[in-house]
Amino acid sequence: MKHRLLILLTILAMVAAACGDDPGTETTEAGDQPATTAADTPDATEAPATTEGGGEVIDIDFWVAFSDEARLGFSEEKAAAFNAEHPEYNVQVTSFASYNDAFDAAVLAVDSGEPPEIIHFFEAATRQALDAVDASGNPIFKSVTEAIDGRTEILGEPVVLDDVVDAARNYYTVDGSFYSMPWNTSTTVMFNNMDILNAAGITEPPTTWGEVEATCEAIAALADGPDACITWPNHSWFVEQSMGQQGELLANNDNGRSDRATEVFLTSDGMLDYINWWKGLNDAGYYSYTGLQRDWDGTSNAYLAEEVAMLIYSSSDTTFFDTNAAFTNQASYMPRNEDVEYVGNLIGGATLWMLDGMDPVQEDGALAFMNFFSNPENAGEWHQITGYVPITKAAVDLLQGDGWYDESPNSKVASDQLADAANTPASLGALLGNFVGIRDVITGAIEDILVNDVDVTERLEQANEEANRSLTEYELLYGDE
Description:
Layout: H1 2-15, E1 58-64, H2 69-85, E2 89-95, H3 99-112, E3 118-122, H4 126-131, E4 141-142, H5 144-148, E5 153-154, E6 157-158, H6 166-172, E7 173-174, E8 177-178, E9 180-186, E10 188-193, H7 194-199, H8 209-220, E11 230-231, H9 236-246, H10 252-256, H11 269-283, H12 296-304, E12 310-314, H13 318-324, E13 329-333, E14 348-355, H14 360-373, H15 376-386, H16 393-401, H17 404-407, H18 413-419, H19 425-428, H20 435-452, H21 456-478
Parallel strand pairs: 1-2, 1-3, 11-12
Antiparallel strand pairs: 3-14, 4-14, 5-6, 7-8, 9-14, 10-12, 10-13
Helix pairs in contact: 1-3, 2-15, 9-11, 15-16, 20-21
């Protein structure tokens, strides 16, 4: 069984290289601070700290897959605030530059028997985290819903889990339970340089594929317009978003939600339509491909440099674009296929998973911290400094009451788009074993289509075979026995 665990964690570490920290912010931004590693935490041989009353302080290790000043700084600030309010606990934040680094460390930590109490996993790792077991076959992580056990407050901290916004609630609820605590949640939106669009006679951002094509045609006719019209990173997450918009399943068994997914569908009508549309933009010179897979920095830099007029991207960087754009930046919904009924966009981002097997006092400290971390004030502040959606309805109400959305209308677009989604398996997104490995297969196929001009149907058929082999191998190890 231990061998099975190590295989699973190794898969997590290897496939995470294809995804980074969040589908919308996989690479660190310029100016990010160096990551703190597990080696930088206090020496375990030091004498334990004590409270004023002489009791031993209870450490709670919190591993965060962010290293930039804003997001890591937020995490450290809130840990310090919690520790000040609860001096019997010491939440210690350990930073990693990406999920890949965090997973590498997790392999070593679990094997040594010293994993953190709280660890930050991205949404595509949900199935793998659920499947992770220790050497005795027990789950590594404990359901947060089970641990809370119906309580409305823990150590005086109100429980916020029941107030999580619907999009995150629906995605992360598995078998009727929240196994992890939602934190950073995003979706895809489009950022528009309205100065260029207005110069081309376009007064509103395009909302459909056809309108994007018409807008690009108008921009191409500008005498001093950009060389290209639109860009977005070559990442499977955008494919998944389009499948949700079109009501298409990425996998069987209701996207892995009514039962474990055992087959993926990479040659569906919706998939072919989206990739053919993408290729058409590329062939026409409207879409700018940087030549790198998952190139978040390259595409965002092209937009800020006004080399393109539109950028489809993660809403998690809304504040970044509002702050750094030297032009009129306007956010809008991700453009959709006008030939089918709109079903809904899905989420990206990550949650906080809690270690199973803690003693009740330590577990209550971890639970109290996770609820404190996303209380309305903290969730609202987190949204403002990043662009991730406010994770609770109370945070949304607080921001609305403070006039934040009047001041920053771009910040509301992601929440509105998610609220407009139907609660269907297609718009929720898939739960898959080795999901990020499958994402890598899709991303590689798209690059082949864009760069080498191969036939879309034939290339997706090849990708479908490869992805299904990967899923089958995973399910042989971790599927129902």
